[in-house]
# Entry
Amino acid sequence: MDIFFILSGFGVGLMVGLTGVGGGALMTPLLIFGFGIAPAIAVGTDLIFAAITKANGVWVHARQHTVDWRIVRRLASGSLPAAFVTLMVLRQVDTHTEQAQEFITTTLGVALILTAAALLWRLWGAAKKPPQEPMPAERKRMDKRQALATVATGIVLGVLVTLTSVGAGALGAAVLLWLYPRLSATRIVGTDLAHAVPLTALAGLGHWQLGTVDLTLLGALLIGSLPGIYLGSRLSSVFPELWLRPVLAILLLVVGVRLVA
# Structure
């Protein structure tokens, strides 16, 4: 069975390298439906998987100065406490019960639908021109609203990612694109990644303590995913994301609807 886990890791890594998104959104449903892994184990293992695979991307973006650390701090000030509280709630629940597994899969379905919508919005909404530069007084009010909205976004992502391992990528990037329309696409990706790593690491370590991380499974997935991400990144210029992202969004939408229904 390990070879199939390695091949799955390679396939998901390839898609992440090609499109920049899809790690948790593809891996978690694949583990649940493709291999019959319990939802709680799939989520916990994928969180550690995401933290490790995204860390390299953060290192690259940080060296290129394409991370807005102010926004990262705003997101983290909401997401990390929310993730911690969610883990504390999960501690009081037996995640292996049928009711808990059903709740996790339903929440995962909602997260996948939101991620699919975010992918499509980023493709068709990102081309709009940013608004004109506001006056200084208005800019100050906008900055305050942006800060509060960013913290609130972090809270939602903290809960969603801890429960489903989905949302830190495409969903987080889409919200940043909406909240900070003047931010370049590269800085949005770098900032989103820089926030995703501590969030998935905290949530993953919490799941590890809960006993919902399979280290053997994690190792097999990483063996396949790391070369897959490298190859996908090299091929990303050959396969335009204008074709790939709608296909990925439709796939996630179908899986999400199935999980919710």
Observations:
- The chain has ten helices and no strands.
- The two ends are 30 Å apart (CA to CA).
